[in-house]
Amino acid sequence: MLNVIINGKTVEAEKGATILDVANEHGFKIPTLCHLNLHDMDYCNHPVACRVCMVEVDEGRGPILKPACDTYVSDGMKIETDSIKAITARRTVIELMLSNHPDDCLYCTRSTNCDLQNLAHTMGVRENRFQGKKSALGKDRSSKSIVKDLDKCVLCRRCESICSEVQTVNVYSPVHRGFDTVIGTAFQDSLHDTPCTFCGQCVSVCPTGALTEVSHVDRVWNKINDSETITIVQTAPAVRVAIAEEFGEAPGTISTGKMVAALKRMGFGYVFDTNWGADLTIMEEANEVVERLNKGTLPILTSCCPGWINFIEYQFPKLIDVPSTCKSPHEMQGAITKSYFAKKLNIDPEKIFVVSIMPCVAKKYEASREELSVDGLQDVDAVLTTRELAEMIKEAGINYVGLEEEEYDHPLGESTGAAAIFGATGGVLEAALRTAQGWLTDDKATNIDFKDVRGLEGIKEATIKINDLELKVAAASGLGNARKLLEKIESGENEYHVIEIMACPGGCVAGGGQPYNHGDRTIIEKRMKALYEIDSHKTLRESHKNPDIIKIYDEFLGKPGDHLSHKLLHTHYFNKTDIVK
Amino acid sequence: MKIDSISKLREIYEEKLPLLALRQAEANVGKERVLMVCGSAGCLSASAQELIDQLNEEIKAHNLEDLVSVEITGCFGLCAEGPIIRVFPDDTFYVRVKPEDAKRIVETHLMQGKVIDELLYLNVDTNDRVMRMEDIPFYKKQFKIALRNCGIINPLKIDETLAAQGYLGLAKVLEENDPEKVCQTLIASGLRGRGGGGFPTGLKWDATRKSVADQKYVICNADEGDPGAFMDRSVLEGDPHSVLEAMAICGFAIGANQGFIYIRAEYPLAISRLEIAIGQARELGLLGKNILGTGFDFDIELRYGAGAFVCGEETALMRSIEGKRGEPFNKKVFPSEKGLWGKPTCTNNVETFANINPIILKGAEWFSSIGSEKSKGTKVFALGGKINNVGLVEVPMGTTLREIIYEIGGGIPNGHEFKAAQTGGPSGGVIPASQLDIPVEYDTLISIGSMMGSGGMIVLDDTDCMVDIAKFYLEFTCEESCGKCTPCRIGTTRLHEILEKITTGKGTLEDLEVLENLSNVIKDASLCGLGKTAPNPVLSTLKYYMDEYRAHVVDKKCPAGVCKDLLEVVITDKCIGCTKCARTCPVGCISGNVKEKHVIDQTKCIKCQACIAQCPVQAIVTE
Amino acid sequence: MACKCDNEVCYAELDKFIAEGHYDDPDSLIQVLHHAQHLFGYLPREVQIYVAKKLDIPIAKVYGVVTFYTFFSETPRGENVIQVCLGTGCFVKGAAKVMESFENELKIKQGETTEDMQFTLSAVRCVGACALAPVVMINDKVYTHVDPSSVKRILEKYLISAAS
Lengths: 581, 623, 164
Known about the structure:
Strand content of chain C: 5-15%
Structural class of chain C: alpha+beta
Helix content of chain B: 25-40%
Largest sheet of chain B: 5 strands, mixed
Number of strands of chain B: 20
Number of helices of chain C: 7
Helix content of chain C: 40-55%
Radius of gyration of chain B: 27 Å
Oligomer: heterotrimer
Radius of gyration of chain C: 18 Å
Number of helices of chain B: 26
Structural class of chain B: alpha/beta
CATH superfamily of the largest domain in chain B: NADH-ubiquinone oxidoreductase 51kDa subunit
Largest interface: B-C, 51 and 38 residues
CATH class of the largest domain in chain B: Alpha Beta
Number of domains of chain C: 2
Shape of chain C: elongated
Shape of chain B: globular
Distance between the termini of chain B: 70 Å
Largest sheet of chain C: 4 strands, mixed
CATH superfamily of the largest domain in chain C: Glutaredoxin
């Protein structure tokens, strides 16, 4: 142990700890901006570039400023976190950043939720001594998912490191130099023309409004208020365990009923549950597993995650036949809404406007994929992130916390515990295993909890015994982990049967459209725990036991994998390796 | 053919010694002559190659090939007087030699033995022609260690390097086989990094030596980016083997077997000389496997810079060698532990390496006897700007600025007054006339707000505006900032903008305050050396020339008459009313009747000064 | 200088350079880009993509490197490349006015190329000929002690050779 003196107080510190670590441990607050350490994801953004965490350090050679985030403590080190020199440096640095920042906080999506704004406020920046040229690159609105506003970029490089190091997608790099440096794409192409998967992890770590989702808010309000349109909304599994955070509730609060009530207050015609679609997905996917098991064409990769699908299309064209052909749950649900449900109601599907509430920004892009349509009608018409929904609820003046809980509408509202866990890494795999096991054992198995595939770990592997069959399964979350698995599959080193992949580390609970967690990964864990709690409280916990699912096959679809299922619920993929031309 | 043992190398040294025999000033004058012609980039720009060709032609035409040879050599230093020829053994120093002078040099000097007076150096003070290099005032206070072979050997011929004790230093350390001793020798010598920082070289080597790793690296920093400095280039062009040998010695001392020379792509001649030298050294087994049969392996590769000043910063340089953007990283652990590709790395500058061979051969005591108390040895400066003897000088540390400027540099041309010397380039500051008597060494320069830097020394006179000079450097730093950390990326731009405001007459007194405060934060909070030193040109000019700043801000005047927007173009009583100026003026702001004095409307004048050029009687002036 | 050879030959040369120097790894990016620019005259988009694939580096990172170093050019350069030295030695001897004079004569700004692709005007930081300041390099020829008023005369030679 070492002794260091922080602001006059001697504290013990471990060798190899940074000043920031030690200060945090002992309650001295040092502001940071670029620094972001997400231990469970092996992610540490550490450019030591913003210079916000400067503190005055004396190691016997007189005091000098050093970055707290990247300076090891040494024995006898004297640290002043609040000396006038340190404070002046910090404040000046923030002023400098603001001097090259659009002064449009009032209109910015991130206002009141912005790290830069917060810092400026807490450091008492009330005027700016610096004026001069500003970067004027404008916004990149080309993609269907992410708006890039480089003028708001503070070059913290979080996006670059999460994209390169965690996701291994490598869309971003610092480009140019000096004042003109920005975190850009190759040739400054718009994101649309890069191999960006739209996973949205860059959005979730961006401290400012430089990276945000493409907003569908106005479109949705307009449709809600259009008397000619029937708006049907569906909510993804991971939204219900996160949205309450936007209203000041503790992370992990389950607010399904309030969310449904709010959606009804907002004026949606019908409120359905994507969990229903998730149960349907399991029917189709489990069927595919069994079919491919018989044909000997395993492994199979799950296909619920649009970021992941983009990834394989851009980076692993040789494996394009491996993912399940199942559409993702909300797309299935959209297709069923515009067919089965439209027929039931006897309305023209063209009048139906399907809105998905998703924890995800890639879903916005996915909804626009041409092939995800039936007879010329897109399965889903608009996608709102969890954040956007919260924004609309606030805008509508709804007192979310005080709402009475309400139920989803039928017949696309009932779901099982298997669907609930779709929102966590390993959940889709577990749900599929439950149903596959049910089918193969005639529902005789007593244990339906496959705990080996649960948890935040990046890659989880298990061997599942069903009758005489030994299924080797794996779940990966985060595209870097996905790459590791795919490389093993490509090289033939790996003999898994079923593999689940989610683009976001942790799964949809950590999706790019979820409330900002500001680097607190314990929030993700709490959301995940909440999903398993929902599962454990359900009487029905296997998708094939969902009565409404059984009913739709009876009434409408026939058997999983049948002709109509194929038309409505399955899709195909493309080789997009030459995206950058 | 490889030299496979240390004793063999020593034999070869003895064998080759006669090669240089003629080049001793005290050698007997016989019939043989050797003409050493400066073949550095500076003199080559001034037609030195044509001169060499002409000399060879004339020699051939007069059948003197057996008696006379022409050798190119490294920089003599007196670049202002280039191209230079030094004739041995009769030690005649010809300056400003043109290709057409070749004929008379051969016919008059070589054949008739007559010195050509007009080609000798002219001492303007005494109006005497000076024949011998040693007698030229420029050389009198110089002491050459790093440049010891420049002007003596032909850098393209490794035999001449060997004759000049090249690689004997390496032989010595390999023979003694004691890496720690090498580091101790360097520590005892007091040699400090010549790239600017002044860190003790021996300590750096020793720290890297102590790091345990499967692989270590030696880097030679030849990314001489300081605009107005060409010391390293001259060493590499004039004596490349001295750097290669020193890198091998360093490799042996720290336990590395791979070296990299990171060199600016803007130095094609230095690159080609290095490539040739590396090839020669490999061929003789002085680089590569089992050097001199001792079992020590060491090889060197070249890596080219690509136009980024920041890559002269140690950590940025490493990133660049790794093929990445040259962005510095925080030295949480020193490169002696984790450097290039995460391996222990020792980086030294060219001039530092050029000092190694003499230190090894002559000993630490010899070296530490030269220079001042805290700065040992010599320092090479590239003397430029408003000074008579623009060129390369090597002086013992502690030489005063006055000696350098007036005795070596020959003072300020055109009757102007010395105003300041700028050292350390964009990282340094100005030294005002009041400090002319300070000894030039690491610590004194820092104490007065400048720094040694790599050795650029630009002399400024009373026609230079200090605000404009600060702006020049800040513009450079803005362009060269890597853009990684906030203070440097945005801060230097803001400094430059404020300076721009001041030089265009829009500055306020508050701006001066902001300038100083911001400079201090950039200095304290930037990530790397480039950022930390970027405000020095501002801070040091503010310190010594506040009056000049205030004149710009308060009186809206530029005392040196440099800042265009602060000048007034006025027509004096000399005006004869010829109307030429009025007809030339692009904005029509000059009025007046024929044969009467004209007047300029200052509110419209754009200060293009086109009228001044047109006036037949010099009646229009700026003030 | 525009591409000196047809593209196929250039790519083959580049392949050869990479293979012979064992440059097919990310560490060698800068060396390879230097050579590619030597072959193609500049680094157009497709060359950057080619190098990225060859060295297995994300294209964004290659672009990041190309835009970082001023030596690399993304646009073709003119037949004659004019480099005005703006090192300190030249600056204090009036290099800025020399640059201005070139800008006026050629009607382009520093860093630009004339429309007819005859001249590219650029600044260089010290060529090390400070004794001869101000210095201008046109292609490989060094002009010393350049006066703003002599710029027109210097350019004339190149204009004549371009016309003929």
